[in-house]
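Continuing from yesterday's entry. The apo prediction looked reasonable, so today I'm repeating it with flavin-adenine dinucleotide included to see how the binding region is handled. Same sequence as before; SMILES copied from the compound registry.
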Amino acid sequence: MAFKSADFMCLDSLFNEEELLVRDTVREFVEDRVIPIIDDHYMAGTFPFELVAEMGKLGFFGANLQGYDCAGLNNLAYGLIMQELERGDSGLRSFVSVQGETATNPIYTFGDDRQKETWLPKLQRGEAIGCFGLTEPDFGSNPGGMRTRARKEGDSYILNGSKAWITNGTLADIAVVWAKCEDERVRGFLVEKGTEGFGARDYHNKHSLRASVTSELFFDNCRIQASNLLPETDGLKHALMCLTQARYGIAWGALGSAMACYDSAVRWSLERVQFGGKPIASHQLVQQKLVQMLTEITKGQLLVYRLGQLKEEGTMRFDQVSMAKQNNVRISLEIARMARDVLGANGILSEYPVFRHMANLESVYTYEGTHDIHTLILGQSITGIPAYE
Ligand SMILES: Cc1cc2nc3c(=O)[nH]c(=O)nc-3n(C[C@H](O)[C@H](O)[C@H](O)COP(=O)(O)OP(=O)(O)OC[C@H]3O[C@@H](n4cnc5c(N)ncnc54)[C@H](O)[C@@H]3O)c2cc1C
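Holo prediction written out below.
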C-alpha cells in the first residue's frame, strides 16, 4: 500500500494543481530516495549528503523565494515540501530548512547584490552549503545575551566567540554568523569555510537528529572582509525574522513525522493479532489512540493551511507562527509516542520509522524556540506582558 497522507477534512481539494504536483513529486522522492537509506544513515550518525545535489535540482532549497535560481513556489507548496521531507526524516528537513531558509534568507533579505549573486544560486543548487549561527553555549533561548563580538579594523571585521548547536556547521561553505558590534548592535556576517581563525567541530553521540550534522563554531581573531557584513542587518530582530520564516516550515514539517507515525500505527494495528484472533485495531483503547492521532493531525493541518494563506497575503505574524510551531511539534511528538505504544515492542525497531521520528521530534521541540519560549511569546501576545525574566 503506497503512502497516503491523512486528509480527514478533505484539504486536498483546497490545494491547487501545482501544489499537489509539488507534494507528490517530493513524496515520490522521499519514497524512492530517502526511505530506503535514511535508517542506515540515522543508525550510523551520518548525513545523506548524496541527496543534496538531487534536492538542489528538484528546487527544494529556498523554494518559496523568487530569482537566483529559486523555484518561486507559493508558501503552501513550500509547506508541503517540508511536510513530505520530514515524513522521511526531521534531519533531512532540518538540512533543507537551514540551507533554504536560515542560511539563505539573511543573504536574500539583508545582503547586497554581490553577496546575493555570489551565494544564492549556489545555495539553491546545493553547490554550496550554508549554516546559521545564532545560539551560543551560554545563550540559547536568550540569544540577545550573545558574547560573540565583531570589531571593525580598517577594511576588516575581527570576530571572536563561539556558537553552539549549529546545523550543517562543519558541512557549510558559508556560515551566517550573528555577532555584537562595538556599538552593541547585533549584525549578520558571512564567514567562509577555511577563513583563518574560524573552526568547526561536530557533536557526536546524539540520540536525536542523528542523520543531521550539528556543530560548534569557533572564532579566534577571525578576520573577514568588511564586505562580508550583511549590510542591511541591524539588530537581533533581523536574526529572529529569519527564524520566523524557518519556523513556518517546521510547523508543516512536524506533521510529516506525525503522518508517518500514524500510518505505521494504523497498518500495524490492523495486522497485529492478540486475544481471540482479532487484530488489536478491533479494541476500543487502540481505536481511541488512532482517533486522537488523526484528530490532532487534522487540527494541525488546518492551522498550517490558514497560516500559509496568511503568509501568501503577506499578513502572517510571528506569534501566529509560534502557535503553529509549538502546537504542531507538540502533537507530533505525542503522536509518535502513541504510535510507538501501539506497535508494542516492535515500536523500538528500526524496521518502523516511529522511534526515529519520536527521537528527532525531541530536538524539533527545542530548536527554533523551545516549546515554552513560544508559550511565552503567545502569553505576551495575549496579555501584553513579557514573562521571560
Ligand atoms: C539538533 C539541534 C540543531 C540546532 N540547530 C541550530 C542552528 O542551526 N542554529 C542555531 O543558532 N541554533 C541551533 N540550535 C539551538 C537551538 O535553537 C537551542 O537549543 C534553543 O534555542 C534552546 O536553547 P538551549 O538549548 O540553550 O536551552 P535553554 O535556553 O537553556 O533552555 C532550557 C530550558 O529552559 C527553558 N527556559 C529558558 N528560558 C526560559 C524562560 N525565560 N522561562 C521559562 N523557561 C525558560 C526552555 O524552554 C528549556 O525548557 C539547534 C539545537 C539542536 C538541538
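Comparison notes:
- The chain has three domains: 11-125, 130-234, 237-383.
- The chain has a mean pLDDT of 97.
Will overlay with the apo model tomorrow.
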